[in-house]
Design a protein that fits this description.
The chain has about 260 residues and is an all-beta fold. Strands 2, 4, 5, 7, 8 and 9 form a six-stranded mixed beta sheet that branches. β4 and β5 form a beta hairpin.
């Protein structure tokens, strides 16, 4: 009896779905940013917009997303000469919103933020360690502002407030007056001193933008000066007088 030959044809298995190797930090981002995803497999990886079908987004072990504003899921599939993986690996990205920019104001020695949580107070450009509450008690003169951070995402900088409770030594027999108040953007400055003084005058709007600066203003006993900032929007402005040792801070109201 003739022998019977049996032939076995080896199978070529399809690859298993890729392994997600994206660092955890890349899976949660802030709105308005992109991120880079990564995966590993045995063949050629392809990135897609859907679990089946969808749009082919690119190939390779890494994929950089476009700018994202909402939670988004991407899918990656492995392919070899034996075919494609039966399913695609999903990689979900959490997109956290940017917090609203806070508005700050002051009353007495306290600063108040409109944001109930996530506050970080700054003084003259430097972070104030531990100042993370909605209210901050001021301890020195200068510029203050706030930034809100929630879920790792930070807001734009709040409006800036200048605090200047200190002044010229009262024993220096110095008097500084601004009139009229309110005014239409043009006002008079009167400086009277017992000795010669050299001053600078700086004027800031409510968000801390310097709109007027004059230095090396000399006076012997009295000085009368007209400052004309017209056309100036209505509002409250901070006028800061400084000499070599001290400063005087005054507020003016422009009302048209």
């Amino acid at each position: 009896m003739a022998g019977i030959w049996l032939f076995h044809t080896p199978t070529c298995p399809s690859p298993v779905p890729p392994t997600n190797t994206t660092p955890a930090a890349n899976l949660t981002i802030c709105s308005g940013n992109s991120t880079t995803l990564s995966a590993s497999g045995t063949g050629t990886l392809g990135w897609y917009s859907a679990a089946q079908g969808g749009i082919w987004l690119g190939g390779g072990t890494n994929y950089t997303t476009p700018i994202l504003t909402t939670d988004t899921t991407y899918y990656v599939q492995d392919s070899t000469n034996c075919g494609a993986s039966a399913t695609r690996t999903s990689i979900a990205i959490t997109v956290n919103p940017i917090p609203l920019t806070s508005v700050i104001n002051n009353h007495g020695d306290s600063l108040f933020s409109s944001a109930p949580a996530g506050n970080q107070w700054y003084f003259d450009g430097n972070i104030i360690t531990g100042a993370t509450g909605q209210i901050y008690i001021m301890t020195q003169n200068g510029w203050y502002w706030d930034i809100v951070t929630l879920n790792g995402c930070s807001s734009d900088t709040s409006n800036h407030i200048f605090i200047g409770y200190g002044g010229i030594d009262p024993h220096s027999l110095l008097a500084i007056n601004i009139y009229p108040v309110p005014n239409d953007g043009m006002f008079n400055v009167s400086i009277t001193a017992a000795s010669e003084e050299t001053f600078s005058i700086s004027i800031y709007n409510t968000i801390g933008v310097n709109i007027y600066q004059e230095t090396n203003i000399k006076e012997t006993s009295s000085l009368q000066k007209v400052i004309d900032l017209r056309p100036l929007p209505s509002g409250v402005y901070t006028v800061i007088f400084k000499n070599s040792q001290n400063q005087v801070v005054k507020k003016i109201m422009v009302n048209k």
